[in-house]
Amino acid sequence: MGKFLLILASFIGVSAVSYWAFTAYSSMEGTEISGHGITAMIIGLVLTAFVGFGLMALLFFSNKHGHDDAVHELRDASSGDDD
Fold it and tell me: What is the spatial distance between Cα 1 and Cα 4, in angstroms, rounded to a whole number?
């Protein structure tokens, strides 16, 4: 239940900041953005978020399955030669 509340609070916070940013931008004089511009911005933000989530998932997957162990062993072995 605590994890759900944390995700809900995060979503509400991001939504509030996004709403504030949109209203602040639209209240400026001399700035206009078309529907195509808004669509392109939303697509860009979603794709950027997916790339970030995907890279973090790969990082956790690599760490969980031990793909990084060989690198750590090589680094430890090479640092021991300097002593």
Answer: 5
> What's the maximum distance between 2 C-alpha atoms anywhere in the chain?
65
Instruction: Give the global pTM.
Output: 0.48
| CA torsion through residues 59, 62, 65, 69, sign | negative
**Distance (Å, whole) CA 83 – CA 80:** 6
DSSP 15-38: HHHHHHHHHHHHTSTT----HHHH
Tokens of 6: 């944390």
pLDDT one-digit tens code per residue, 56-77: 999 888 888 877 777 766 677 7
